[in-house]
Amino acid sequence: MNEAGSEKAPLLDEEFLARCAKLVLFSRTVIQGRVRGEKRSRRRGISTEFADHKDYTPGDDLRHLDWNIFGRLEKLFIKLFEEEEERNVFLLLDASASMQIGEPNKWRHARQIAAALGAIALSSGDRVHLRVFDEKMRPFYPALRGARSVLRLIDTLEKLPPGKGTSLGRSLRAHAAACPPGSIQILISDLLDPQGFEDALRQVPGSRGDSWLVHLLAGSEIEPQLQGDLRLVDSELQQHVDVTLTRSVLNAYRRAVEEFRQDLRNHCQRFRIQPLEVSTAVPFDQVILEWMRQKRWLT
């Protein structure tokens, strides 16, 4: 596995891609009466996977008569098949300047997670939409299909430039206006926006399909290893504040971070979004292969 902090290394290596090809995004969305842990729906159609029979009625396609049953029962039955259904998977990637914080930084970690989830979806037959935002939603990328598109997705993510400011709500409203129901929406963001995150989460509710949140914070944001007199500069607004980091100040900061994360959990529950809190201190492949499988996002 490539070192997460090496900016020159590929986002994903061949060994990890091979492991991705064996996984599937698990959807809890009920489609035509079935929870989907695979891409096959219960809608009846003509495909390659036999499902059931029904009595023949005039007008049915005679090519699908079951002649074996007719030979035994002298009664006409039509074969029914399960129809393959293509899912839409939306990767909503935060490219704002605050995502460049940390070592390894959140921007690389986020792109690795997006690349891995996209590779899994493409390898298992889903349609993948990459949507990138900072101060606004960037122009939409064309939807990708098929395992042959995996390298194209990775190349796009590797070349993505980070942005500056953040407008979560405005950006995700643009996404919501064009997102079909029943989709899997995966938001990868630190959710650091002066305007808050409530309006943003409202745009990706789990009531429209499956909505996942990878809430990504740098290890230094969760547990800062700082002390003494410092000038802290906002990475997006470039405003600064002079502080003396005493033990009591650091304890107050930790409480503020926990309140922020608890508020986020409450809003996720309200909007039926499944959250996963991730620190860049945890290797991204562990997040994919262990944490997401434990949450039943992947099978």
Instruction: Using the CA coordinates, give the radius of gyration.
Output: 23 Å
- Helix/strand order: HEEEEHEEHEEHHEHEHEEHEH
Distance between the termini: 21 Å
**Largest beta-sheet details:** 6 strands, mixed
Q: How much is the average pLDDT?
A: 84
CATH class of the largest domain: Alpha Beta
Shape-level CATH architecture of the largest domain: 3-Layer(aba) Sandwich
Helical content class: 25-40%
The domain tally reads 2
**CATH topology type of the largest domain:** Rossmann fold
CATH superfamily of the largest domain: von Willebrand factor, type A domain
Gross morphology is: elongated
Estimated structural class: alpha/beta
How many separate helices?
A: 9
The beta-strand count equals: 13
Q: Stretches where pLDDT falls below 50 for ≥5 residues?
A: 30-48
Spatial strand order of the main sheet:
8-7-6-9-10-13
Q: What portion of residues belong to β-strands?
A: 25-35%
Descriptors for this entry?
alpha/beta; 9 helices; 299 residues; elongated; Rossmann fold; 3-stranded antiparallel β-sheet; 6-stranded mixed β-sheet
Structure description:
By secondary structure, the chain is α/β, with parallel strands linked by helices. The chain has two domains: 14-30 and 86-294, Rossmann fold; 41-84, no CATH class. Helices cover 32% and strands 25% of the residues. The strands form four sheets. It has a six-stranded mixed beta sheet with strand order 8-7-6-9-10-13, with helices on both faces. A three-stranded antiparallel beta sheet has the order 3-5-4. Helix 6 (198-202) links the parallel strand 9 (183-189) and strand 10. Helix 3 packs antiparallel against helix 4 (150-158) and helix 3 (106-123) crosses helix 9 (284-294). The radius of gyration is 23 Å and the shape is elongated. Residues 30-48 have low confidence and may be disordered.
